[in-house]
Amino acid sequence: MIVVENKSAEDILKMVAPYKKILVAGCYGCVTVCLAGGEKEVGLLASQIRMAREKEGNPIEVLEQTVERQCDKEYLVNFQDKARDVEAIVSLACGIGIQYLAQVYEPIPVFPGVNTQFLGANLDVGVWEEYCMACGECVLDKTGGICPIARCSKSLLNGPCGGSQEGKCEVDKSVDCAWHLIYDRLKALGQLDKMAEYIPAKNWHRNEGPRKLVKEDLTLEQ
Amino acid sequence: MLQMQARSAVIYEELDVFPEVLVIGCGTEGAAAALAVSENQPVTVIDHDTNHDGLSLIKGQTNITVNAGVKVVGLDGFPGQFLVSFMENGEYTKKSFGAIIVALEAQSSYDAKKYNRIELGERILSLSQFIKKDNDYSRQKVTFVLGQADRDSISSYATALSQAIALKEKDADVSILYYDMKVSADHLEQDYELARARGVNFLKYEGDLQILKTDVAATVQYSEPFLEETEQVKLVSDYLVLPEDYVAHPGTADLADVLDVNTGPNGFFQEDNVHFLPIMSNREGIYFIGSCHGPIYGVELEKEIETVKAEVGRFASGKTRVASLQPQVDAEKCAVCLTCYRCCPHHAIEIVHDESLNNMYHSAARMNPLACRHCGICSAECPGKAIQLPNYKDGQILQQLSRPPKIVAFACENSGTLAAELANKIEPELNALIQVVPVPCSGKIDALYLLKALERGADGVLLIACQKENCKYSRGNVRADQRKELVRKRLEAIGLEGDRVDIVHVAANQGNQFNESIRSMVARVNQLGSYPGKVIR
Predict the structure, then answer these.
(1) What ipTM does the predicted assembly reach?
(2) A19 vs chain B: nearest CA distance in angstroms?
């Protein structure tokens, strides 16, 4: 899941300062699951914005709506009635949804209501942890199912480094050393020989620009 | 201004249930429960791999199956339809039950440190050794020493009194050495009077005891509070009887984990919560009887068994009728995020998959009507606003806030609304300044309600919750505390005063406390002035 965190009300109020009528747009996808951009959060933010502006003597009308997913244009269409009626939109979707919403509803200005954080697991109510960095070249088969790219502070492919102490990372003592976890897991799996296996440097093909995935055999005929 | 929402007509469902009841624990307590319950419906008793003291009481009884050497290792499903996994001779088996009665008996543990390190022996017996031993005590001097161990219960007092009375009948010379005589339970005062009448010596001590033993006698040396001289008294007996402490069955923590039920003080089953007395757990269909939830004695146990028999009896016919009062989930809005599932204190929620469910997952949360206690915590936690509790839907709550007065108080119906009614009788003019919005639990108070109350014209908002550690739904009042903080931060983030929102913990009879908190909130908002964030058009 994509994990996001709410932006401060102060930042959002600055973005919408010039407008008198806006839409707060939620998403029932990842951001609902991570308790930051669902219908509830839309209601809370809208109420905050209204009250803040009343206090300034500069009232604003805030519409509220949440759709299935903001990263699919078929769902984005559902905003059209309200979007037509407002001067700006604050999106509580992840960075993907915000951009896609902005693209579909150009020229209406779209502002981010959240800071997109990482791809992570929901460990408990209110607790998330990064598990994947979408590097594009998975090595989990070699590392006992624990990602050194996302979970080692230095993204080392051949760890641990000299800074691993008692299972903790030298960068932040509250963080488990990913390579210590990998060692323990491989040992439990009886695959410790994999520790000695050299993993060659990755092809960080991000250099080639934004990534795009096209599966020729699945695309519809145009 | 206390308004009750008009209730919609209740719809009943008839559900198929398994009549059979599982009793975990085959001590005398579990056996007694099984015997009582078996009058109405079939019972399986397992010993959970430990105590078999009750075996002889139930062996061969119709309607009772005894399964020794079996341990519970898993639990699925809901009341009426629990599916229990067992480990039996290294193999997993599964069986369905309507309800579960936990009867893992406490164990007595002699703590020599409490009796100045004296070891047990021929002349110095623990209370449970004494009960089991069939000595001839006629013309023997027997002394019970109370108040050193088992201080939190009256169980050793009750046992010592009944044993003392019985000893008198066998012509023994009996003394009870006590610091304070605890008799606060049914029949104990009578036992105490009877023991006195029969000639048991009651001797009070103060401070530390010294216990000495020789081959032929045991001596307690103690300070006598009623004598003018502070000299130590030496009491020489043939036998000294020393009560033990009761400790939770060693399997308690593991079983609590498997059943997802709460434990409380000293690691016994059941949390320390007045709403949970005497046999209830945090889950419907799972009950605690006897010493598994703390030291207990005969009369109390009988009452518990009577109650549990009635509770599980509703499944005896294989069908049960239940009011459909559980929250309803709008599948279109449910993101199957598991928040409600994880927050439910009663383990009443499941995620179901069904093609008819109208969302991209064809899945949604569902509240089980038999497991749900209708607290509404799930609906306040839902990030998608997909969950609505009948009679307390968001629309119904917000409708009450069309023109709020100075103060809106969202009040738990287990404490707050009752305190409000009392408060209204004490000081009606104060209550004219407030609007009380009843909720089934303070955990149902959505952060949104608090902001809406202010937005619509209130100057201050109160959450009226039960006293700490006293929430009928375990942790609703803790969540209410967290929401107060969350809303305060939200207000402060937009430059408004966070302390326009506050929480008060009251009991149902604290009418004056309720008025005091209203008065203090009124004073606070009068000082702050009218709330500047009101959105009135």
Answers:
(1) 0.86
(2) 17
